[in-house]
Amino acid sequence: MRQIEIWGDDDADDRTNVLKVLIPFLLCGLFLSVVWFLLPVGGWLFLFAMMVAYVVPPLGRESVIPLCILGGIPWWLAAFTIVFLDFAGGLFMAWNFPLVLRVPYVGPRVRRFVTAGRAYLDRRPWLERLYFVGLIAFVSLPFDGSGSIVGSILGRMLGMTKTEVLSCITIGGIIGSFTIALGIDYIVNLIPAGAGTWVSAAVFLLIGIALLVMYRSYSRGWGADA
Description:
This protein is mainly α. It has helices at residues 14-36, 41-55, 61-70, 75-101, 106-122, 125-129, 131-140, 148-157, 162-190, 197-225.
């Protein structure tokens, strides 16, 4: 079992600690500023709403990316937006994990997840030997709860460094987000232009139901094993 790294900088001064909290949010502001020049006002507002929906549960990339593409956002921009949010979230967790544990309501939930996840990993020591590839695969899965926040917690339990975890989150985010975006864009192009809104909605409803069934099966498997 790898030695768990303590993700905290107790000797850092107050100015450094404040910067570590603010920089991920400032990066998001910079990203939105750049996107402002790429999209019309309506598209920018819609993308901003989807970013908020991704950060605040329960929507995951498997829901946000299709909605973005159907809302007129280019597939590559929809995918890159989610990758960027995963990176920013992973950066925030890497720099501020002890702070997150002290946040009311959030901290206790994180601690419970760590306890359940530790028990899950203890029963499967082989997962720790494949920690880097395994975390990339976990983050890339198109399920709610497999993004940067949970990925950061799992990486910490596996004893990975901040750089390793951030690399896994970024690589997994690229694989998962661009796979979904390309798949949805391909399906959209297969639907005839004159098919109508109801046909398009029915196709994506079937896809959504399939993803929901897969997610519930995945969640039950985690809950039974943890």
